[in-house]
Amino acid sequence: MTRVKRGYTARRRRKKIRLFASTFIGAHSRLTRTTTQQRMRALISSHRDRSRKKRDFRRLWITRINAVTREDKLFYSYSLFIHNLYKRQLLLNRKILAQIALSNKNCFDIISNKIIN
């Protein structure tokens, strides 16, 4: 049997992994075995955190809307606000409501007064 020299293929594979892990610190960017392990771990974390980011932003928007709705009225909360919003069929998502609450408080007050009355 003839001898197979597969240095080029193996080097190309390792080089691709090393390019991915070039910003990692220490042995995680230099040694092949640890770079492959770190690469797998990084890809798993990025996949998991893509859905977590959506969750975190939704929580942030809800917190901001809740803070603004509780400022003026004593017994008015986020859940009542959203309930009345759907009852009046005003279709504004939480992201837009949070932006309005932060940037333009008067506009948010107009929306909440329209919902209540």
From TrEMBL:
InterPro entries: Ribosomal_bL20 (IPR005813), RIBOSOMAL_L20_CS (IPR049946), Ribosomal_protein_bL20_C (IPR035566). One of its GO terms (biological process) is translation. It comes from the Eukaryota. GO terms for cellular component: chloroplast; ribonucleoprotein complex; ribosome. One of its GO terms (molecular function) is rRNA binding. Keywords: Chloroplast, Plastid, Ribonucleoprotein, Ribosomal protein, RNA-binding, rRNA-binding. Its main location: plastid. It is found in: Plastid, Chloroplast. Binds directly to 23S ribosomal RNA and is necessary for the in vitro assembly process of the 50S ribosomal subunit. It is not involved in the protein synthesizing functions of that subunit. Belongs to the bacterial ribosomal protein bL20 family. This is Large ribosomal subunit protein bL20c. The gene is rpl20.
